[in-house]
Amino acid sequence: MKCVNNARSNEIELLEFLHRTLTPGNHTIPFTIILSTQTDTVISTPYQKPLNECSTLSVHVAANFGRQLLEAVHFMHVQGVAHRDLKPENVVVGLELHQLFIIDYDLAMFVDGRDDVVHGDGVKTKLSLLLPTLPVARRGYE
Length: 142
Prior knowledge:
This protein has a single domain, classed as Transferase(Phosphotransferase) domain 1 (Transferase(Phosphotransferase), domain 1, Orthogonal Bundle), CATH 1.10.510.10. The N and C termini lie far apart (33 Å). The protein has three helices and ten strands; from the N terminus they run βαβββαββββββα. Helix content is 23%, strand content 25%. A four-stranded antiparallel β-sheet has the order 5-8-9-10. A three-stranded antiparallel β-sheet has the order 1-3-2, with no helix packed on it. Strands 4-6-7 form a three-stranded antiparallel β-sheet.
């Protein structure tokens, strides 16, 4: 379970948005809202093992998880979402069915086009102002 501060995060809105698109490339962790108040929302997600705690994986399973991770990032970007905190602790797997999920959308945000970031309050900011060290030549990434 996780408690999300509604004033500081648009995590719930992002999760609901991503879950509206049912496609094999959507690796967003399923969730259920347990309790919602004006200030906080408590969500529950199924337990999955963090990828960085998987000590031994076969080459086939590791390659499958790598493919799913690339699908997940591609899916988020196509939907106009930047996760902004993708790290091993935020990638979890179901070892029984070999399914990979992305968790922790605290820092995620909607990105409108290539250069505008849309915050939870609808305010737009130029991406280049948020990431001043991002080389201009790399913006062509799709």
